[in-house]
Protein 1
Amino acid sequence: MDITRRFGRRIVGSSPARRTKLIMKDKEFAIPPEVSRITDKLKSADFEAYLIGGCVRDLLLKKIPRDWDITTNAKPEDIVAIFPKTFYENDYGTVGVVNEEVADESLKVVEVTPYRLEAKYSDNRHPDQVIFSNKLEDDLKRRDFTINAIALSIEKSKSNIYKGKVVDLYKGEEDIKNKIIRTVEDPNERFKEDGLRIMRVVRLSAELGFSIEKGTEKAIETHGKLLKNIARERIHDEFVRILISEKPMEALIMANNMGILTYIIPELKKAIGIKQNQAHTYDVFEHLLRSLQCAADKKWPLEIRLAALLHDIGKPATRRWSDEKKDWTFYGHDVVGARIATKILADLRFSKKTIDVVIKLIRWHMFFSDTEQITLSAVRRLVKNVGKEHVWDLMNLRICDRVGTGRPKENPYRLRKYKSMIEEVMHDPVSVSMLKVNGNALMEDLNLVPGPKIGYILHALLEEVLENPSLNTKKYLLGQAKTLSKLSEKELQEMGEKGKEKKEDFEEEKVKEIRKKYWVE
């Protein structure tokens, strides 16, 4: 990690190894020595030091914190003077204390911030002025949510043992116990200060499984439009954390009910109430959310989750009624959806690499046809279009799509058959091309002229390699080819034919193994 990068959220969890023990009331917590050393040094220099924010919340929830933050009455210049390796390049007083030697990414930089007061937020994003304070109470008052406004002092009592003291002015522990998210003091003021906090409520609810306090929820409904003032990069970061949470479906339903989905992905709003054909139980919106939740339940990566959420985003634009079928049709929704999804993902500042993968999955998610008629050449084209590295992601997207329709069976015969055909076309072909020598090498090494004899020798060599793959070395094959070249063309032809038969038998056995693996004919 580039430690001079401006402070960003690190999402790698801490290893439980090498911890100091913190005892607090009837609780024990594991604190990394890289963190306790920082608080010890601040206190040795006659400053106060508290763990603060998400790391305290996570400790109380018995989770491993994803990063560690400390607050203190020391000013930035004091912090820089105490620690040999720091960086300080922001307007908010936060100093990054660097631990270069640790392998754990969450501990490479520990952020230390002075107690501070914040003036008016004219742009609903940043305070107009930051004033450093000498009182912890001032710092806690400016925090966003009660569950993040808990300070934890750790005092060393004996070797490797620390005692903890909680400062909780806003009943954050009680809200953690009751699984509630509420703002510190007036929610209207908190959201007007920083509109991104609106997204953060939804994200925390998804990550923690907490409900939202009524007053906080009402304030979100009132001030949701403030998200228009927030940089899309910041929206992106919160949105990604929602998607990779355990309950993204609930989070997006919540976002829609509170009126803020339109500031995240407005195109999803158009999917609400769009009824589908008889194969679907749900409207397009619920189908997409259920498909996303399937990907989350399977713990599949971000790209599959994005594709699951957006794979039918083109349906509202392509829906037509068919008098002939007496049903809705959505011809071309995969092509149209890929174009719409490209715009959505670019607007949310996803990387080109991520967009390319997701768009391929959306564009080709309608790959199904009758598996009794589909040809291996058609499957090869599909693999070419999506790429070998992503074709199994496409199969997983298909599972999400199916589960999202409300069908109980997620891996039916037709999908298993398609998987089998994909594996058949993807396994290395058994041919003379797999040999470590080719015709040019034989002609050059043995002074042979072009002709059928070259092919006969190669197929005879292939027979040996199929029996014993360890023989597939250039040295052995050239030596064996020298012996074979002394035989008559008729003898070589007979040996070559045996090689071709061996190859066909080998291929047939391989295909049987693949089909047996997927329980298909």
Protein 2
Amino acid sequence: MGIDKKLQKDAMRVLKDTSRTFYIPISLLKSPLKMTVGSAYLCMRAIDEIEDHEQLDAETKQKLLLTISKLLKGTFDNEVYEQLIKPYEVQLPEVTIRLGDWISVCPKEIVDKVKESTSEMADGMAKWVEKDWVIKTKEDLDDYTYYVAGLVGVMLSDIWEWYDNTKTDRELAIGYGRGLQAVNMLRNQDEDAERGVQFLPETWNRKDLFSYADENLKMGDQYIESIKTKNILVFCKIPLELAKKTLKALKSGEEKMSRKEVETTVDEIISE
């Protein structure tokens, strides 16, 4: 039991180091949701770090992602995983190296669903690494954002249902994830362009991506309408409201929300 407590503490520390945005709503969740969503987020972040890695070549990324996808489909063998990443250990962050730990702190009744969504995500990411992230059509953009963010929505829906039978619409869950991702894309557009990636269909401009974000964030609003559990509602509302306000700031030509605005938004949602 001591190891579990230490691992849980470690998971929250790594979560805080990796994502300020998601750390806030996850830390507000009650047990066992906190550790479930925390471990699920860390599992997905572990593979996301491989897809985004600046030093690994495309072939290595594909090999790692496809092998991880297969490992997650069965009983996850941490020794096999450690052997797989050993040659790249120096380059990989802690969140990726410790994927086995994040799986082990997830409640046994829901861990298979978390592994299933993460496996599908790894597979989809490998496909887009192979395509060199070249997005030609809106369908391509939908496909890419499904794998990197829509699946987060699907996985959260599985977790809510497991926790207290909260049922949500899967399509709206995907839109919720896509909306958050589209705002990230708009925020990081210059940075992505510097590394030669442009997440825009051929005929689109920045204004079209703003519309895409708006459209999907509206689905996010619809998604949370069916959620009655206060704890889950607060969790879902925080990233959604922060995304909407970030979008507004970007439209006004600002880079992001101020820290004060973030804190005020979070406080308002908690006290509703």
Protein 3
Amino acid sequence: MKRHYVLVLGLLLVFFGGLLAWWVQTDGGQIEIKDVRFVGTNGTLMSALLYIPPGVSNENRAPGIVAIHGYINSRETQAGYAIEFARRGYVVLALDQTGHGYSDPPAFANGFGGPDGLAYLRSLDIVDPENIGLEGHSMGGWASLIATAVYPDGYRSIMVQGSSTGTFGAPEGTPEVPRNFGLLFAAFDEFSALMWGSETGAGIVNTEKLQAVFGTTEPVEIGRLYGSIEDGTGRMLFQNATTHPANHLNSEAIGDAVRWMQMTLVGGNGLDANNQVWQWNEIGRLIALIGMVVSMLAFGSILFDAPFFTAIVKPMPEAKVMQGIPRYVGYALAIFIPVLTYFWLQNLAGDVITAATPLFAQNITTGIMFWAVGNGLITLVLFLIWHFTSNRAQGATIANYGLSLSWVDMLKAALAAILIVLFGYLLLAVSDLLFKTDFRFWVVAVKLMGSLHFRIFLGYLPFFVFFFLVLGISLNGQLRLVSAEGKSAPFWLSALSNTGLLVLGIIAMLLLQYIPLMTGGTLPLAEPLLTIVAFQFVPLLTIVALFTTYFFRRTGTVYVGAFVCAMVITWIIVAGQATHFAF
């Protein structure tokens, strides 16, 4: 009966989290949000969310803003900006770049989709075509800048965060072009060297590149208006004490974007830039994400009571685990091997698979897959050495490692895992239908897959199944937390232990990178993109620890937990990544 109460709790979290997110992003139901599709350059199908404030019509046109996310993000990533713009009376088009979200691949095509987004917003009869702004983060800034070059008379102002002119196809800036240029660049931005040629974000004020855009030979002053907004030559630099990805969760950054649009666009309701509610949207989506995880755990536990699945439920096997000093060595290896191989294996993927293919269509996902498989192989070799040189002599068999299922029962375990994941997917689909929200927090996004995503998902899935099977054997068969009497620790303690083994190394690596950066230096290990990618593995591997620990204890084997983890992680990564192959 307790499991049913847990399921109800999870469902309530999903519902009320989604309701809170909807209430915030629609400003209490006043703002209409439409999921739109339109055809762009070369027949590319583009995707976006369209925010329509109250009172806007073809007879009462409003200023418009195109909001564009950065690399390996999606339209929902700019929700904080879109919500606050819409609350101030602007029609907002939150665009999926080409090859991102639900826009057709490949990534980087057609000016990242920026020109198509601007053209579409200008075509709407509810938008004043002479009063349009562009806002973009990182690569979304490049998309916005390219749009200004394609349609030099199609916009009134632009604000970019963590981005730059003259980079990766974006046009060079001058004191006159682009029109009314606002730049927010974090003091600790990881991409300062790429964007402006400065070792630190704070130091970009001294670069000739930035000074050329602002029409000065002196250090650019933060918050000073250069040029004239009336003439279209307005320039202003904003800077905050945060990082590149943290601009999505920063009230100052969002407030600065609002201020610049209020300064440069005509119209809107003049709501103070400090009056912000977007944070509650993030909190609502996080609550819903937690609810999904809780619901899947409870649903799986209830599912195992069905007669069809009773054969896969075994007693927890006797612990035959590492003991003494070797156990602590095992802990250290589990924590630090993934970190030591993190950059190497992901970069190796680019050397081995030099271009995206139909099977490996997403470059970042391919790198993560290489990292997972490589660590799986290393872990498997070390495990086999330990088993055959030590543990087999203690009477250990495959049953002690949670592997005692027949082929038929393994298929049943796979079916159970599919049903558990489908249940979580159904919750997401219902939330999308009712509230137009996904489950996310910051860099972790649980999105519905399009048909192409599902095809890509199937290609990567077997490799992640291998990794999570090996991981399940290692965590639950080799490093299981037991008392001196050999009794397994309580679930909460086992889950905490497994979480520590999976995330402490990542946290240590992030601290190694960010303590120097946040104290005025640079990233000691460089690799800004992959470092930012690493953030998502702290919450994702926490979810993995919960799934693999709980389902092992519930079924006595590693299979259901491994299959659930493989499907969930592959789904989350694939749906949120850029697709580079031109299908």
Protein 4
Amino acid sequence: MYSVFLVEDEIVIRDGLKVSFPWEEYGFAYVGDAADGEVALPLIRQTKPDVLITDIRMPFMDGISLSKMIKKELPNTRIIIISGFDDFSYAQEAISIGVDNYLLKPITKDKLKDVMSEAKNKLDKETERDNYLEQFKAESQEYEQFARVRFFNKLVSKTMSVPEIYEKSEELGLSFDSTHYNLVLLDFTPMTEGTAAPVYSKHMARLSDQIMQYLKCCLEYHVFHSTMDTYAIIVKGDENTIQSHTKNLIENIERRCLFYDDDIHWYLAESGAITRLSEFASAYQKASKRLSMRFINPKGHIFSDEDLEALQRSKDDSNVIVDQHLVMLFLENAEASEIDSFLDNLINSQGKDAIKSNLFCRYFAMTMYMCVCDYLKKLDLNPDSVLNSNIRTLLDNATGDTVAALVGSMFQVAIEKRKQEVGNQSKSQLSEAMRYVDEHYSDSSLCLNEVAKAVDISPSYLSAMFSRDTQTTFVEYMTAKRMEQAKALLKNTKEKTQQIAERVGYKDPHYFSYIFKKTYGISPKEYRNEGTKQ
């Protein structure tokens, strides 16, 4: 239902229109009135009506002056001018500022009915257009998201030349015209003690939306979804601004994250400023190593090299004890790509000279072996059948040169087994998500967040599963389902295109026709005609 506000200095007319006209019957809620423009303006700013009906001649502020201000502040508000003066100059001025209608007093019920019906029709079309644009924007953003992920992965793996970086970034609408850059990694690893896909969290969904909205408003940042739990943010600037831009980013993220500190684990690390696009690979490695400190200190939030140095100093004069709980958290939550950084940080955290001791190396190797065995048992696996048969002998003879590689190989096996276990669960959840889409595709408001909530899994994880296991995006799967049903309805029923569009989840028949032609190369009408010829 739309809203309407009335401004009329004659109380008899104002009260008469308010009471006698059946506003709700014509799709409007009467949200207020005033005797002149001066009193009306703050009320209109507050109520933001869809339609404003105002007299043209009033004391203090007339209808033309009020309409000019409303058109400037609320350009989507429809304005209807009423007047007792059949003066063409008034009509001309009203039309020039974008007033929708100009009516002469006395205003009969039939006249007002026609005008309000026309206003409602215009508002309906605008709403349909806005819904179409929002839907198109949402679908385009998901397609763009995967293209950006691929671009970022190539950027930090150094598989693109500098000219290719400029070419691909231009295709994605990304600007890389700065002299200095910084790479900030923002991670939301759940740090759970269990092997399962991350569950849906309304707090996480809300926080992600808030951070994304902030980043999209700032031209100095480019954001990418690096992994399921990690965002990568490229900060742009020059020699004088790169530090302040980075500081502002971190402070804004920290302020938003701290609001949810009791419910969400969050971690952040930056690479430091670089001046070449070819340096992003090394910048990513540096930021990733700092970020892996979250498994050494899961209660921390923002990590730098100073954190590791401080930890080293605290261990130099103390007994060497590895916290096995932190190792288990790593095995349960980390990516295989983080193994080297984690082990490097974990070994260095024991003191700068620890790795020089063969006794420490053997102790460390056997401790890691026990952690891996315990973790494999949690997965209902037999460590002896999973790990290298001579791993114990190799670990007993570990040295500073071999210990990291030996432990890393065990970690690799454990994480791969976890991935397989989670993958099996994910297939079940993905099947459930696909069934949900199959059953609710006709709902025009169906979206990734709704499906993720229904199957109790995080939206980012569900989106990644669709891409990995079906080689398509969530939107592409939902669209394919809708198009499949649309073809059947076009072929087997005589329903109009608009009816079919609504039955398969599209409020706007024009958008439905656009998607159908984009999918099959012909319009719904052409498809139906081809079917009748056979």
